[in-house]
Design goal:
- Strand 6 and strand 7 form a beta hairpin.
- The protein has 366 residues and is α/β, with parallel strands linked by helices.
- The strands form three sheets. The protein has a ten-stranded mixed beta sheet with strand order 2-1-3-12-11-4-5-10-8-9, with helices on both faces.
- It is built from twelve helices and 14 strands.
- It binds nicotinamide-adenine-dinucleotide.
- Nicotinamide-adenine-dinucleotide binds next to helix 4.
Amino acid sequence: MKMRIAIIPGDGIGPEIMSEALKVLKAVCSRFGHELSYDTFLAGGAAIDAFGVPMPEDTLKGCRENDAILFGSVGGPKWDDLPWDNINGAITPSRGIQVLRQEFQLYANLRPAKANRHLIKVAPLKPELLVNADVLVVREQCSGLYFGEPRGIVRENGLRRGFNTESYREDEVARVAHKAFELARTRRKKLTSIDKHNVLESSRLWREVVIEVAGNYPDVQLDHMYADNAALQLILNPGRFDVMVAGNIFGDILSDITACYHGSLGMMPSASLGDGKFALYEPIHGTAPDIAGKNIANPVSQILSVMMMLDYSFGLTREAKAVENAVDAVFEKGYRTVDLCGPEHQRVSTTEMGELVCNALVEQPG
Ligand code: NAD
């Protein structure tokens, strides 16, 4: 198969972990006989420095011309104090990724979180809670609080007021709900919908529409949970969840909680899907400015984003499984980046972890 990928490393640790993911992708292509072509583009802070905007037209055009986007993450202290455009925050680095999500209507952000048996000892939750932890958070990400209008910071009667709008149209809820039900069908057939139905009108509509969509999926068991309770249950009883569907801000926050199933955000990939095969793949974490430039970041989040890309955009399930197995084999041998390293482990750098995964991929039987 021929794969054409737009690569956007971004800022902070983005370029460091992207290099390792690219090495792994090349190793997959050479082992399984696929042809890879890719172009690298700027976004976020790097694009603001080069072109004065977080999402240059050249980057958008490059994305349109490829089959999938592999994204790092954007932002950092260098750009934190840029003045806000009161209409849409247009010059902040995070606009870089938000524009991509909207431009390609990548409305369903899939964030899988499964406890890895080799990491259970270093994870902060009790092993008996983690054995059954296997959750897929489906976050709506083209609407809701991050995009709603009006938004801004205004001065009224001598005081500044900042405001945003949580807003969902029924079609926006329905399409992500359909995606979540379809994904639940491929798993344990349970879907939990997250809202604040007790206090928010947008949540009342959310719940109504999810119930309407459920009529198409009688084989999937649906329940509803308030977002604050979900935050607690993800810690107390992770095994009760299969697929979870949530709006933009609830999904963003709740999925970070699931990082405690591994003990590090550096383990967590995501896929941003729309209606077709074209999609964007990125870690759920940010640019980790505290560890950037030190060659210590965990590249597994970006490597597993490659795994999700092979599976969802290219239908290469065997290759995706090979990447997952290679990561597992490296953990089984006791290698860890610093975020997951206990006294009994062998500590490795970002680049060493990438090379170990490539070697494990080549060494796999079959
Ligand atoms: P963060 O996710 O960057 O970091 C949170 C913590 O997790 C830090 O201690 C960091 O060192 C650690 N961490 C994250 N990734 C890691 C990895 N691969 N290996 C080891 N440790 C890792 O969150 P933050 O500090 O709140 O945000 C930093 C910047 O990233 C901000 O500018 C923010 O706007 C941006 N951000 C971007 C995206 C995106 O581009 N999609 C998402 C979230 C945050």
